[in-house]
Structures are given as C-alpha cells and as structure tokens.
Amino acid sequence: MRTDHPLPRTLLPRDWPVAIRTGCEAALGGWAITVVPTLAVFVATSSHDAAAALSMGSAARTATALWSLSLGGSYGQAGSPDGVLGLPLLGLSLVVVLLARSAVRRSRLAGPASAVCTVASSALVTALLLVLATPAGSRTWPTAILLPALVALLAVADLQRRGTGSAALADWWARRPAWVDPALHLARATALLAVVLAAAVLVMAAAVGGAPRMSRLHDALSGGGVIAFIGQLLLQAAWLPDALIWALSWLAGSGFRVGEGSLFSPDAVIAGPVPALPVLGLLPTSPLGGENSSVGLYVPLLLTLATLLVAWRNRHELAGLEPGQSALAGIGATVLLTAGTWFACLAASGPIGPGRLAVVGPARATTVLLVAVETGVGLIVGSVLVHPRARALTERIERVGRRAGDDGPGTPTDDSTETS
C-alpha cells in the first residue's frame, strides 16, 4: 500500500537557486566590467611595447586591484618606489552599486532567508576572486567586507519596499514622527543642489584652463592607440565623483589637499608636485579672484543661500507641521547632510603615490564642521521663518514697531495738548 509522506523541511528557502545566482551576479558584475576594459588595454598596448607586455594573469590581477579600489581596497605597497594607489574609484563604485541593485530587484527575493543566501553567495564569490586574483602586497580585504554588506543593505531595502521584509522594521518606520519626511526631502534637495554647484565649479575650472591641461596629460599617457585612449578616459571618468567631492569641500571654504603641505581653497592655493593624472589638470593654480583677493571668502555663502532656497521651495510641506516640528525637520536635515559629508570626504580620500602623496582628499574635519554650520543656518532658520506662524509673528512685531514709531516723542499726545 502506497503512503504519501510529507516532504522533509529544509533550511534553504524555496527560491534558493535564484538567491544564490543573485549573489554571484552582484559580485561578478562589477569585477567583470573592470576586467574586460583592462584586458583590452593590456592587449592593445602590448603590441606597441612587447618587452613591457604583461601576461593575461597579471592583467586580471591589476583589474582586480582596480575593482577593489571602488570598494575600499588599495593597489601597491607602501615601501615600493611607486607607493600605494588608494584613492577610491567612486565612479566605478556607483556602477557596482547599480549592478548589484539591479540584480537584487530583478530576483524578487521571497524573504529574509533568501536574502541571507544572496549575501552568503556574494561573500563567497568575492572572497574567491580576491584569493585567486589579488596582486602581491595589495590590500584588497576590505572588498570582502564592503561588497556583501552592500548586497545585504540592498536586499533588506528591497524586501521592505515590497512588504516582504521585517514586520517590526515596517511598524517602526510607520510610526515615524511627522517631521522625518520633510527632513529627508530637505536633505535630498540640498544634496542635489550641492552636487549641481560642485559640478559648476568643475566646469568653471575646465573653462579657465583645466581642460587643455587634462587633454595634454591624457594624450601623453594614452600612447596614441584608440583602445588605450578609451581606457584612460574610463579611468579618469571613474575619478570624477572624487573631484565633485573635492569641489564641494572647495565650496565649503575648507578646500582639499593633493599631497602633504598643499591646499586648494577659494582664498588660498599652496601647490606642489602632483602625478601626471589627467583629472588633476583641473586643479586651480591661484585663489579665486587672484592673489590678495577677498572674493574667495564669500564662496561658502553659496551653500547657505542654496539651503535657504530649498527651505523656501518646501515651505508648503513645512507649513503642515507645528513650528517646533518644522525646526526639527531643519535640524534633522542638517544632521543627515553633516553625516553624508563626513562619509563623502572619507570616500574621496586616499593615497596616490609615495611620500607626501599619501595625503590626498578634502580637509575632512574642517569640511564637515563648515558644511554643518553653512547648511544648518539656512535649513534651520529657513524652516522656521517660512512657517506661517513665524510669518504671522514677524508681521505682528512689524505692526507693533510701526505703532511705536507713530507714537514716538515727536508726536503730540492728548496729555500734551491739554497741558498747552
């Protein structure tokens, strides 16, 4: 007689093959998009200089080191003549994030157990790639931590977005205070406007004289080949987000450094020898307005004016809050922007060579402090002043002031008339 037995329970979720494939795709996507152009450049340039041609294995290890630059790693050794290259390729970091996000969203993971499988497979594949293809002496181990952490964050966010994640986390978010959403909107709008201002600074630097310097350096390094030209262009494009963050620190007034003892800020330029990287052709050669000019001192006001504009554009949303909550929205946005500035400055810092070139990036502490003050003044004061009650109070004070002026010492009163 046939007896139906229930299927044995398993720890794996029902969609575990999809979850494992998603983790592998998230890890391999960024690595492959780095390896393919690197191999193409090595193959194209080897015909020009066969003695200096590297093997395909060495090229793959170099590409792996470049991939790790986008995820906290570094290339080279501190004791070598060329030093360490550790300035993150933030453009490649954005590509890695977008590829991993696309993989997670397309997979539509069933639940937290599926997310665990995805994170585990991404960690395993990342570790395997680093073990097999890391150049000797390079510090690539942070990639083995940051990439799985990124996949975990993306998976949790996708599960919560689709309502299949943690119920406790969803309930906590549903009970958020009324000022949280306006604070997020203020912070996002201010960040976008700051990026636009930083991009305008880069365009201005290129127009003043940076573009010809970049072109000369690019032509000198590309070797004349089309593939080498494209590869060099992609490498410089991967550093453009770093340059945007440097421009933001320039806007804040603190500036940035390219080598120990150097400083590039609106009111001071202390330069020194720098590597022949085309993106460094955008570095300013003098303070804004020239030597002994005070124009650069007023540049940080642009950030404060931008935050006042953001508060004004969001006045209708802020009007729906109590005055205290409106102020909290401005404070919350300032805290978010300050934390984001600290993270951005950390991400856009790293060595680009030996000796003094180990110190490269924004002046982190000063930039964070100045951004907190410059954006805080605009957001907090602006969030309070655009509130209807604040405007009503201001109008009432103005009326009282005008009445007091009309009843001043020069205006005769009833008592003075009777006395005369």
TrEMBL record:
Annotated keywords: Membrane, Transmembrane, Transmembrane helix
InterPro entries: DUF6350
Top-level taxon of the source organism: Bacteria
Keyword Ribosomal protein: no
Regions that span the bilayer: 20-44, 83-100, 112-134, 140-159, 186-207, 227-251, 263-283, 295-314, 326-353, 365-386
Region described as Disordered: spans on this chain: 397-420
Bias type Basic and acidic residues, positions: 397-406
Name of the molecule in the record: Beta-carotene 15,15'-monooxygenase
Organism: Actinomyces respiraculi
Upper taxonomic lineage: Bacteria, Bacillati, Actinomycetota, Actinomycetes, Actinomycetales
